[in-house]
Amino acid sequence: MMMKMMIMMMMMMMMMMMMMMMMMMMMMMMMMMMMMMMMMMMMMMMMMMMMMMMMMMMMMMMMMMMMMMMMVMMMMVMMMMMMMMMMMMMMMMRRRRRRRRRRRRRRRRRKRRRRRRRSIWMMMRIEYIRVI
């Protein structure tokens, strides 16, 4: 009888232990799962944050590039305007100079022509006088 009792007790104990172990294992598994889930969530969050940061950085870079391009374009336009202005000024100056030169030349030519005409008139007069 005693032996039976002892065996029964042992069995019970074993069962209990098994149950406990199972429970513990389950708990551990659950905990692990939870941890994994948490980790995954954290990772996801981190990834999302990183993506957002990257996007922001990209946007900033794009904005900076756009700004730089705009600045370069503005500089180019300014340079073009300056060049145009310089060209215009040069042309104006050249024109003025040319005009002055032309006027002088014309005056000289006129003077020469007048002289020639006078000389011809003088000759004609002399000839008339001779004829007379």
Give a written overview of the molecule.
By secondary structure, the protein is an all-alpha fold. It is built from 1 helix and no strands. It has one helix at residues 2-131. The longest helix has 130 residues, at 2-131. The radius of gyration is 55 Å and the shape is rod-shaped. It starts with a helix and ends with a helix. The mean pLDDT is 80. Residues 95-116 are annotated as: Disordered.
**Rg (C-alpha, Å):** 55 Å
- DSSP summary: helix tally: 1
Q: What is the beta-strand fraction?
A: under 5%
Distance between the termini: 190 Å
What structural class results from the helix and strand content?
mainly alpha
Question: What does the secondary structure layout of this molecule look like, with pairings?
Answer:
Elements: H1 2-131
Region (Disordered): 95-116
Keywords:
mainly alpha, 132 residues, single chain
Short description:
The protein has 132 residues and is an all-alpha fold. It contains one helix and no strands. The chain has one helix at 2-131.
